[in-house]
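DUF6922 domain-containing protein
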Amino acid sequence: MRFRQTLFWDTNPNKIDTKRNAQYIIERILDFGNDKEVKWLYNFYNKSLLKKTVVESKSLRPETKSLWRLLLKNR
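Predicted structure tokens:
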């Protein structure tokens, strides 16, 4: 996946490591990603990691956190 600069405005998107920076990537895509990026996220990361990130995140917006808790509830 080639990450958009507008999604990762505070860093160079070409230097993001998908394993080491998984939480950072998940939070940004869930908060600000488009449909294509969310689809990639679902296919790339384990569902339990997505759930864990949503539950433990301190940076997700409250409305984003609520939405994704509902969407990931039965997955």
